[in-house]
C-alpha cells in the first residue's frame, strides 16, 4: 500500500513553510502520497472547530502527519475549547503520541550564531525525549479550592509503570541509532514520582536497553550542565514537566527557532506527528520571509521515524547543511532569502 503524508499547514506562517516542505517531499520521495487538511484557526473558520472528526480520522490513517503551526490574534476571542491550540491538543491526544522528540543540534555553518561559545556548541547533537501525555500536567486531583479556610492550588504528579516503560523504550531505541547513551532526568531526591521514575527507567533499561548506557541526573543539575557542558549529552529522557523546560533550554543553545523540528511518536504503527518548534509567528506571516528549515527538518524526522526512509532522511539533512554551508540564509539567520528561495537552495543541494 502507498504511504501517505498528511499535511496540516494550519495558520500564520504554517502554510508558507509547509508548502516548501511539500515541494521537497515531492522531489525526494515521489512515491509517497501527499494529502492536505485543515487544523487550528483555518479549520475553525471553515468548520467552526479547530479539528474535525474527519481530519482526525485521516490523520489516524496516514503514515505520518506534518503540521505547520496553529493560532494567531484573529482567534483570541474564541472560547477555550474552540481555540486553534485546542485542535493541536486534540490531535496529539487522538493519535496518542506520548513521546516528544526535540533535537538540539547546530549545523556547522551556524555555530557562530549560537548563544554559547563556539567550543561549547561545535558538534553539539542532543535529542531530548519528553513524555508528553502524563505526569503533573494531567494528574488528578488538581484544582483551586479552599480547605479548612485556606485557599490553595494543587496538581498531582503521577506516572504509571506502562507510561514510563513505553517512553523509555523509545529513548533506548533512538539512542541505539546515535551514541547509545541515555541520561534519565528527575528529582528523585525530593519527589516520590521522581524516585518511581528512576526505578522504572532502571528496570526498563535492564529489559529493553541492550547496548545502551544509562545514567541518571537530577533535573536541576541537568539544566545547569546543559549550559556548562552541553556536549556531554546524547539522549536526555525526561517526564512531561522537566522535558518541557529542558527542551526549550536546549533548543536555545543552538540559535534560531526557525531551524528546530520536533516529532511526537506513539506506539509502533501509530502515525507520528511532526511539527516545527516555532509557532505561527503572526508578526511575519504573509510576508514570505519565514525560515522553512524547521518544517523541512520536521519532514526529515517523518521520513526517518514514520516512513522508514532513512536514506532519504540522511540525504535531506545533508542538503540542509550544504545549503547553509553555501551561505543560504533567511532573515532570522541574518540573510535576505525568502521562504521559497531557502527551499530552492535546499532543493539545489539535494
Ligand atoms: P506560539 O504561542 O504559537 O508558540 P510565539 O509567539 O510564542 O507563538 P513563535 O510564533 O514561534 O512564538 O514566534 C516567536 C518569534 O520567532 C517571532 O518573532 C517570530 O517572528 C519568530 N519566528 C518564529 N518562527 C520563525 C521562522 N520559521 N522563521 C523566522 N522567524 C520565526
Ligand atoms: Mg511560544
Short synopsis of the structure:
Residues 4-346 form the Isopropylmalate dehydrogenase-like domain. The protein folds into two domains: 1-98 and 266-350, Isopropylmalate Dehydrogenase; 108-262, Isopropylmalate Dehydrogenase (3-Layer(aba) Sandwich), CATH 3.40.718.10. The protein has helices spanning 14-28, 41-47, 53-61, 84-95, 118-121, 161-176, 192-208, 219-228, 240-253, 293-305, 310-325, 339-349, and strands at 4-10, 33-36, 64-69, 99-105, 125-131, 143-147, 150-154, 181-186, 213-218, 235-238, 261-265, 272-276.
Could you please describe the fold and organization of this structure?
The strands form 2 sheets. The protein has a 10-stranded mixed beta sheet with strand order 2-1-3-12-11-4-5-10-8-9, sandwiched between helices. It has helices spanning 14-28, 41-47, 53-61, 84-95, 118-121, 161-176, 192-208, 219-228, 240-253, 293-305, 310-325, 339-349; strands spanning 4-10, 33-36, 64-69, 99-105, 125-131, 143-147, 150-154, 181-186, 213-218, 235-238, 261-265, 272-276. Helices cover 41% and strands 19% of the residues. The protein folds into 2 domains: 1-98 and 266-350, Isopropylmalate Dehydrogenase, CATH 3.40.718; 108-262, Isopropylmalate Dehydrogenase, CATH 3.40.718. The mean pLDDT is 95. It is built from 12 helices and 12 strands. It has 350 residues and is an alpha/beta fold. The structure holds adenosine-5'-triphosphate (ATP) and magnesium ion (MG). Adenosine-5'-triphosphate (ATP) is lined by residues 13, 17, 69, 71, 257-258, 278-281, 283-284, 290-291, 294, 332. Residues 13, 17, 69, 71, 257-258, 278-281, 283-284, 290-291, 294, 332 line the site of adenosine-5'-triphosphate (ATP).
Amino acid at each position: 500500500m502507498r504511504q501517505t503524508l498528511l499535511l496540516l499547514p494550519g495558520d500564520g506562517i504554517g502554510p508558507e513553510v509547509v508548502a516548501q516542505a511539500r515541494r521537497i517531499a515531492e522531489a525526494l520521495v515521489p512515491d509517497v502520497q501527499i494529502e492536505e487538511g485543515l487544523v487550528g484557526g483555518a479549520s475553525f473558520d471553515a468548520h467552526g472547530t479547530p479539528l474535525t472528526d474527519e481530519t482526525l480520522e485521516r490523520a489516524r490513517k496516514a503514515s505520518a502527519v506534518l503540521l505547520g503551526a496553529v493560532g494567531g490574534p484573529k482567534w483570541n476571542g474564541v472560547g477555550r475549547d474552540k481555540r486553534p491550540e485546542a485542535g493541536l491538543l486534540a490531535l496529539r491526544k487522538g493519535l496518542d503520541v506520548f513521546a516528544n522528540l526535540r533535537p538540539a543540534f547546530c549545523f556547522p555553518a551556524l555555530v557562530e550564531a549560537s548563544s554559547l561559545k563556539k567550543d561549547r556548541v561545535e558538534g553539539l547533537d542532543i535529542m531530548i525525549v519528553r513524555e508528553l501525555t502524563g505526569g503533573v500536567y494531567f494528574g488528578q486531583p488538581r484544582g483551586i479550592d479552599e480547605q479548612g479556610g485556606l485557599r490553595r492550588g494543587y496538581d498531582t504528579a503521577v506516572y504509571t509503570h506502562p507510561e514510563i516503560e513505553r517512553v523509555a523504550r523509545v529513548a533506548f531505541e533512538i539512542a541505539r541509532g546515535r551514541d547509545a547513551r541515555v541520561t534519565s532526568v528527575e528529582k528523585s531526591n525530593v519527589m516520590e514520582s521522581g524516585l518511581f521514575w528512576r526505578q522504572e527507567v532502571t528496570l526498563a533499561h535492564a529489559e529493553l536497553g541492550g547496548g545502551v548506557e544509562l545514567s541518571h541526573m537530577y533535573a536541576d543539575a541537568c539544566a545547569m550542565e546543559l549550559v556548562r557542558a552541553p556536549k556531554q549529552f546524547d539522549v536526555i529522557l525526561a517526564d512531561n514537566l522537566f522535558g518541557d523546560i529542558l527542551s526549550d533550554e536546549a533548543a536555545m543553545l543552538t540559535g534560531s527557532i526557525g531551524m528546530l523540528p520536533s516529532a511526537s511518536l506513539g506506539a509502533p504503527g501509530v502515525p507520528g506527528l511532526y511539527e516545527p518548534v516555532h509557532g505561527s509567528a503572526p508578526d511575519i506571516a504573509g510576508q514570505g520571509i519565514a525560515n522553512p528549515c524547521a518544517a523541512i527538518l520536521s519532514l526529515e524526522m517523518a521520513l526517518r521515524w514514520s516512513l522508514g526512509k532513512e536514506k532519504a532522511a540522511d540525504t535531506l539533512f545533508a542538503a540542509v547543511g550544504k545549503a547553509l554551508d553555501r551561505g543560504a540564509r533567511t532573515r532570522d539567520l541574518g540573510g535576505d532569502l525568502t521562504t521559497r528561495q531557502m527551499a530552492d537552495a535546499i532543493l539545489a543541494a539535494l
